Write a sequence for this structure.
């Protein structure tokens, strides 16, 4: 699987809620591994957690440690209600770390 295979995959919370879609990957240059996913949130999820941006899409980074499984969709280990309790970072544009 390459990076292009992951882009635009749906991200699903553990409880089955569609959270958003993968828009970018964050690489750890030291270990040459993917460290996080940049997820463009569904409008209703962004509004529910009061993180909706006025003029742009709302994107957050989710650590790969929060992934339970990956096939045609990416399933997280956390339910929707706990999505913003896990370490995430709101971002307007992906930034290298």
């Amino acid at each position: 699987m390459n990076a292009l295979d992951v882009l635009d995959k749906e991200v699903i919370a553990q409880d089955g809620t569609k959270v958003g879609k993968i828009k970018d990957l964050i690489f750890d240059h030291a270990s040459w591994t993917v460290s996080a996913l940049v997820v463009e949130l569904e409008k209703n999820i962004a509004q529910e957690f009061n993180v909706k941006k006025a003029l742009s899409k709302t994107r957050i980074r989710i650590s790969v440690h929060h992934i339970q499984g990956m096939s045609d969709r990416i399933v997280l280990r956390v339910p929707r209600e706990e999505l913003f309790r896990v370490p995430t970072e709101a971002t307007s544009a992906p930034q290298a770390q």
